[in-house]
């Protein structure tokens, strides 16, 4: 929180478990026209239903506020591996999803329409600065997923797209947010390992071709004009220190 304060941002630390532990500061926090919700689900660490209850608690406060525009940060991890190009309408219900709780949370928020404008942003794998793909696989042997296309987004572009939406106007739509180029994991891993002189992983051809998905970001282009700073994951900007914070 100190990092926000140092940048002149009014910051609030409001714990949830899963409801708000205290009402202190909530009136001030929700006294805004626009709310951006970026709440990591941590689905493997919490009991089932925990994330949905958190979103329900947020919605309860929204309903008592003057908020009219909402952006919810979701994830392309909700899509199953369909072995094809995937678009927003491929997952609309929890039953269709690889992450039912996240889609349930999306649907709770979109139910606020039309009284409020709600945009859902399904972000691809968030990389850039100290989030370096090669860091997580350096030295690994005989990986079988090298041919899978990636669905990444650089942090600067994620921020840029959100800023563009805020400036242009929030619409009642769901958008995939991914870089337009989908190179292979092998190329991404080897390139980022070489950048930092790490031992690159090795790859073998699996007996069966691994399942994949290619996330389409075309719908965003139909509503907003945005030029990617890093359209190609092979050219993402990285740093061992989080200098972009």
Automatic annotation (TrEMBL):
Classification via InterPro entries: NAD(P)-bd_dom_sf
Domain of life: Bacteria
Protein's UniProt name: NAD-dependent dehydratase
Species in which this protein is naturally found: Dyadobacter chenhuakuii
